[in-house]
Amino acid sequence: MPRAKQNHKKTHKEAENDGFSLLFLNSFKCAAIALAISLGLCALLAAAMLMLSDPLGLITPLALCALYISSFLSGFLCMKKTREGTLLCGVLSGSIFMLFYMLISLFMPPELSSKHSFLTSLLLHALILVFSVIGAYTAKHSSGKKRKIRR
Asked: For 21, phi and psi rounded to 5 degrees?
């Protein structure tokens, strides 16, 4: 006697949970990729600073540039991969990216920590989320289609 076919339709709640799981997984992967890019960018900037006579004044600004460019890429890559939930995608990938940096900073010696005040540090960390959301919105509005030029 053949078995009755089971109904494989997912409920709305199950489909929503699967969508969030996929978004979280994509955000995690894209934040990890952006972290690797950030490390490479920091190494490249460090090599460039070796050419300067006094690079000490440029260490913090260039490190922040690498951080924010990588945060932008995290949101951009996540949005290109998932193609939905722009704000959530940007915030989630930026949060995971910030979590990676916080975990890395736990293993750094105290001499390497920044000398910023608490409010400045809070603002600098909030900018990670802002750049990630900007990256997600940029990815949403940049399409592979070429625009027609009217003459």
From this structure: -60, -40
DSSP state of 56: G
The model's pLDDT over 21-47, given as tens digits with 9 standing for 90+, comes to 888 898 999 999 999 999 999 999 989
148 in a domain, yes or no? no
CA distances from 126 to 1, 51, 73, 122, 145 (A): 62, 32, 16, 6, 33
Number of domains in the chain: 1
Spatial contact of 59 and 49, defined as CB atoms under 8 Å apart = yes
The answer to whether position 3 is within a domain reads no
Q: Which tokens is 78 given? A: 């996540």
94: Cβ contacts below 8 Å, ≥ 6 apart: 31, 71, 74, 75, 128, 129, 130, 131, 132, 133
Answering whether pTM is above 0.85, one says no
